[in-house]
Amino acid sequence: MKLNLTRPIIFFDIEATGLNIAQDRIVELCYIKVFPNGNEASETLRFNPGKHISEEASAVNGIHDEDVADCPTFKEVAKDIARDIEGADIAGFNSNRFDVPVLVEEFLR
């Protein structure tokens, strides 16, 4: 499928410590960025959330506290992530109801 893009578009997904948008933290961010010229860049980043990953979340995403213990915090790489998504449209499954709000909360912190 050929996309007629004037700006890059990022398709992304997050995994979090739980389902509370205001209190839970991102433990994994994956995205693919498609540029208007058709080039693509993808990234998978893991973060130490600084809090326990709930058993319910780990059962769904397969990520446990020990898997992210040595990873950087979101805050440590937030500027790089912001630079990657600046000027791009974003899309993702259920992104308006969960992923985008959680991502915004992380940037606000």
Secondary-structure map:
Layout: E1 9-16, E2 26-34, E3 40-46, H1 55-61, H2 65-68, H3 74-85, E4 89-91, H4 95-108
The end-to-end distance, rounded to whole angstroms, is 38 Å
Note poorly predicted spans: none
Largest sheet data: 4 strands, mixed
Helix content: 25-40%
How many strands in all? Answer: 4
Q: What Rg is obtained from the alpha carbons, in whole angstroms?
A: 14 Å
Instruction: Report the portion of residues in β strands.
Output: 15-25%
The dominant shape is elongated
Helix/strand class? alpha+beta
Count of DSSP H/I helices: 4
* Pattern of helices and strands: EEEHHHEH
Briefly, what is this?
The protein has helices spanning 55-61, 65-68, 74-85, 95-108, and strands at residues 9-16, 26-34, 40-46, 89-91.
Describe the structure.
There is one protein chain. The chain is built from 4 helices and 4 strands, in the order βββαααβα. It has helices at 55-61, 65-68, 74-85, 95-108; strands at residues 9-16, 26-34, 40-46, 89-91. Strand 2 (26-34) and strand 3 (40-46) form a beta hairpin. The longest helix has 14 residues, at 95-108.
